[in-house]
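Mods, move this if it's the wrong board.
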Amino acid sequence: MAVRIVTDSVADIPDDLVRELGVTVVPLVLRFGGASYRDGVDMSVDEFYERLRVSADLPATSAPAPAAFAQAFDAATAAGDEVLAITLTAKLSGTHNAALQGRSLAADAARVEVMDSGWAAIAEGFVVMAAARAAKAGATLAEARDAARAAGGRIRLLAAFDTLEYLRRGGRIGAAANLIGSVLRINPLIEVRDGLVQPAGRTRSRARAIDELVAVAQDFARIDELAVSHAACPEDAETLVERLAAYYPRERILRTRMTPAIGCHTGPGLLVVTVVGERR
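Not the wrong board. Structure tokens:
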């Protein structure tokens, strides 16, 4: 009996890895300009960020319908698989609850388990990929879950913003609200800790912000996975990749462009480093 891994689109796993690892992705719903779109399906990343730059109204997201999760669960169990569904942190979204409701609607709920990753973006993706690799190697559901939990405990994510205004307006800013309001031009830094957005400092320039992102890698004695993610700032992302290549093989650095479900809350200019490994 195989184990199928299901996740949501906020995990931001590149399409080639989704296919390679056999992961099922349930998209969040993006509402923009009076229309609804499935995240990562109905609108390209380039189109989204171009519209975001010029739109007077902010887009919004909503969790997938429970029925969408139930459909994914039923497809897996009908094929004879068990299911481990791994979602973004329940402290930032209703997606985890939607997955739990989807389980209650599933035809074979006893063979479905829903897990909160405690993370978002590619940090969530690394948790999902750890479970999917274990499952592909023949792990049981419990073993795949343990692999996911182990990965989740070895992650650090640090993000540099041009502005926190999008997070503030979207209501996701949490304790990082104290970084707003400086009369100086700043580049705020945030991280996700205990499933919540937390302040991690501020810098006076983009160059200094990139220095802080590079320093994350320096804090690890061993790096197993490393990703650079960005929202419509590819030049900064490439600069960061080049800097990080001193600590981790350049060809193994995972590059992602933030999915619109994340970008509508962060705005363009977001630059993120995510590391999985053992800290010093």
